[in-house]
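Researcher: I'm preparing a figure for a lab meeting and need a structural model of a single chain. I don't have an experimental structure, so a prediction will have to do for now. The sequence is pasted below. Please return the structure as tokens so I can convert it later.
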Amino acid sequence: MAIRSVEAIPLTHTLQDGRSFGGTRGMTDSRSTTLVRIETDDGTVGWGEAFASPRAVAALVEDVFADAVVGLSPSAAESLAERVYTGDIGGYHVGRQAFTQCALTGVETAMWDVRGKQVGEPVHTLLSGQTTDSVVPYASTMYITEWDQDPAEPMEEAKSEGFTAAKIKIGRNLEDDYRRVSVAREILGDDAHLMVDYNGNYTPRQAIKSIQALSEFDLTWVEEPVPPENVSGYREIKRHVDVPLAAGEAHFGRFDFKELIDERLVDIIQPNLGQCGGFSEARFLAKLAATENVLVRPHVWNSGVGTAAALQFAASLPDYPHAPDMAPEPLLFEFDRSENPLRQDILETPFDIDDGILSVPQKPGLGISVDEDRLEEYRI
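Model: Understood. Here is the structure written out token by token.
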């Protein structure tokens, strides 16, 4: 079986006027991504997601990656990242850059989807040899909104949907941080996992002051308190707070993550399966993190395809250092609750929460079926 064609499909959905939302780094008035569709000579179709500016990354997929992988076996996904880093694909000078890593991820993930369909196994079993039935989803919610939404509303909605954990946006100022976290904790309850995301909007000093002020709320982790490039800032925060730090959604490829892990700048890395380099690279990152006892919890703000990829990756993660079935905390999985039809409308069977649990697809590959007719409604 060889790859016959590679197609990039840029997608977007425009929000209604007045309904922009986001975090401290700005708000968005649309949801966009690029899907990668690979087809083999026997008609098997694989899907991946390149989570970046749609037109730009779509051009990169078709101009650079398509020629490089057409004619290859899907098993060549294992070496695709190395070919990018060495410059065999795309040229030596751009292999580590964000758009190249996103394009690589979309193509490589689609190749793994085909591999799973070839052998009749879900990707998480191919990656790890284990079978995982479910994870505990946390609601990614309480966004900063253009319409100044009462922060209690999305949290009440998440609780009514069965979520037992949540991550919220903070980082505008100390008073607002305290108010939003207080509301979330009151609604979720004292025993629920609660995480906060600053989106890198603070200086180290501001972040330390905020995190210390929130200590009474027993936060599970603090995400991106300073910008991703502020390595010394993470180091300074670690010296002054006793709350786990997490980062990774704005990091690309193994070299970015290796610095986070080697220097113990964070306690949790968060690769995104739309931009981290693909499944092989994500598996490498997970093993690298395990050597330093750093947790891995994927960042997920993707379409239904990227969500499926992240879920398959999460299901493959090792228990180390815990013995099987002896982990003191659940495997938490990000589940975005903002408006995004690219997440649910393009799948024939959308993901759903059942009594606080998210099932891991057990069908071959990513375990999903893409509704290609619905894709056309959002194609750019």
